[in-house]
Amino acid sequence: MTLRAVVESVGHYLPERIVPNSHFEATLDTSDEWIRTRSGIERRRFAAEGETTSDLAIAAAKAALDHAGLTPGEIDGIIVATSTPDLTFPSVATMVQNGLGMQHGFAFDVQAVCAGFIYALATANAMLISGQSRRMIVIGAETFSRIMDWEDRSTCVLFGDGAGAVILAAQEGTGQNSDRGILAADLNSDGRYREMLYVDGGVSTDGRAGKLRMQGNPLFRQAVDKLASTAITVLQKAGLANDEVDWIVPHQANIRIIAGTARKMNISMDRVIVTVQDHGNTSAASIPLALSVGVETGRIKRGDLILSEAIGGGLAWGSVIFRW
Ligand code: ACO
């Protein structure tokens, strides 16, 4: 018997406030045209004052539970991928647990910046196929608007807030790559790249939350290379070929990174779910948000083979291949 971690449902939540690119033209030397052509972003959502990452995560988790027709009593574990927690501790995941009215099971956060959802999926997969857990909610939730330097045009126009959640359950499979569920994962990190993308404050340095700092152009080049390479590795691990992939559901940082990676993999953009125009870069939330939009719009269907890949601060990057 082979246990597989199968996605039972997906849901998302976006804050109400929609911020178009033109919003930044008033205060910065930038333009809608620059943002659109260099990143593909047209608008993003920002959380309201007082609206926290756990609020977004709870709403996304409730949507995923509703779509599956499940109650919190049927969940035994929660993982939240986030780099923008409400507080230094406790974890956002325990806040979600409480918000769902759960007094059983376990909950913890994973921090791998924009690769966080991939790391969380791989972690949940390991727990489910080893029998440690039977059904988990895996959430990506972020309020990156809270760590923006609003005077830095090279970063503040790129990020947005949101949350997405999937419910994963252990189900018996055949062990073949025709099974539903996660078929392979590939995780990587390299701390030498710390300066390329970081937040310039923290608990044990200066006690501040800090602001995001990024060397966009060198990171761009690292991103396309590393994303294509992890995608090829995960396909090899699963014994699958590029042309068997129905959908790439990538981290949504920049349309040019998404297109460059698809090109390197010889996969047409018709088979890529793109939401960066509407959400901006929502870090760990971007993949579950894109999955949710892919399902809502009727493109992702049961049995489809999906490849998700992401890279972010660390650098940390990786990919997961799964059958919906
Ligand atoms: N408006 C107008 N001009 C701008 C803006 C702006 N908002 N931002 C930068 N510029 C200028 C720069 O100052 C530069 O001007 P200069 O030539 O006079 O010096 C020029 O535009 C070109 O800047 P580049 O940085 O070379 O532009 P590039 O084509 O690389 O695009 C971008 C920048 C969009 C940031 C891109 O590099 C990128 O997407 N990088 C990767 C981001 C990423 O993947 N992050 C990882 C995930 S995020 C995470 O983990 C949290």
* Termini separation: 20 Å
Fold-level CATH name of the largest domain = Peroxisomal Thiolase, Chain A, domain 1
Enumerate the spans where pLDDT stays under 50 for 5 or more consecutive residues.
none
Mean residue pLDDT: 97
Rg: 18 Å
Helix content: 25-40%
Please identify the top-level CATH class of the largest domain. Answer: Alpha Beta
The largest pleated sheet is described as: 5 strands, mixed
Structure notes:
This protein is α/β, with parallel strands linked by helices. The chain folds into two domains: 172 residues, Peroxisomal Thiolase, Chain A, domain 1 (3-Layer(aba) Sandwich), CATH 3.40.47.10; 143 residues, 3-Layer(aba) Sandwich (Peroxisomal Thiolase, Chain A, domain 1), CATH 3.40.47. The chain is built from ten helices and 13 strands. Helix 4 links the parallel strand 4 and strand 5. Helix 3 crosses helix 4 and helix 7 runs parallel beside helix 8. The two termini are 20 Å apart. The site of acetyl coenzyme *A has 24 residues, from helix 2, helix 6, helix 7 and strand 12.
